[in-house]
Amino acid sequence: MTSVDKLADVVDVVIGVDTHTYSHAAAAIDAATGAVLAEISIEADADGYAELVEFADDLAQRHGALRAWAIEGTASHGRGLAVHLDTLGEYVIELDRPERAHRRGGVKSDPADAIRAGREALSRARVGTPRGATRGAGPDGEVARIRQSLATLLMARRSAVQAAGDARRQLASAVMTAPEPVRARLRGLSAIPLVTAAAKLRTNAAWAQADIETATAVACLRLLARRVQDLTEEAELLEKQIKTLVQAWRADLLELFGVGPITAATVLCAWAHPGRIHSEAAFAKLAGVSPIEATSGQIHTRHRLNRYGDRRLNCALHTITITRQRHDPTTRAYTERRTTQGKNPREIRRCLKRYIARDLYRILEAGPPTTP
Known about the structure:
Layout: E1 2-3, H1 7-10, E2 13-19, E3 23-30, E4 36-43, H2 46-63, E5 67-72, H3 79-87, E6 92-95, H4 110-123, E7 126-127, H5 139-176, H6 180-186, H7 191-199, H8 212-250, H9 261-271, H10 280-287, E8 292-293, E9 303-304, H11 311-327, H12 329-340, H13 345-366
Parallel strand pairs: 2-5, 5-6
Antiparallel strand pairs: 1-7, 2-3, 3-4, 8-9
Helix pairs in contact: 5-8, 5-9, 7-8, 8-9, 9-11, 10-13, 11-12, 11-13
């Protein structure tokens, strides 16, 4: 997160925004006292964004021109507003949505959440910049657009892979319950040959037309198999597009052992841009690989796995770790050494993921990005 001395020392007003699909609620908070200066509700469109900026300009004439925007959901409902403000050069702060238990007395309303967002930004020692905003028309803006494109492609590929897996499992289940003539043609085939053979089944064959049950089974198996093929081809096409964008942005990541296009894109989307994450420890915490103490009684050296943070980033680090443990001689030697020291496999993976997070952060922050 971007570090500042104290938000109240650098701005006069903080405008907290509670974002939703069709409307946003905003509240202007005096940075010195925390008092509510004004409130407004706008439509979540270009006209509403312009109205909100005009509202802030009117406040500047009475309470000071220096302001910051504390917005919830800058990567989802609030992204349009965050991009609009970033284009205008406004200072935008990213906030997580609150847990219900943290709301004062269980109160839930859009104006109350907007006020809470502004005051929470004032109370934080470090504040974060949005990772999804588009920064103008220069190189920074192009990088931000590449990042958002990667996030969209990753989402589409993830959906295709999950749907292909569902269809593959449904195909295997349908084969088990199919009539014997159909099962005889597909018996003993592994996953990929099974999909290929089922996609080539002929619904007009004499054995397939023997009865309605067999004809229906053949038609459904063929449909499921072709669905798997189509979704697999779609996922491969999306992966090629992801690799092209990663090479355009940070091709140096693909040179690291165990880092492929998908893991590199996941890391880049979480990291976003230099300076957003203030240290490698913060990056490890974001990835959910920072050790958590689990002491009890006289035991003060015990740690457990971190179940928090960005789980997709954690999954990417896990994939890199497993790949290196299987194929990288240095990592295999480290695993053997830690095993002789009494570490179990889960503890060793936790240590490796922490080291990998440190290396990735240093490379991302220090390495010059490829010109898009």
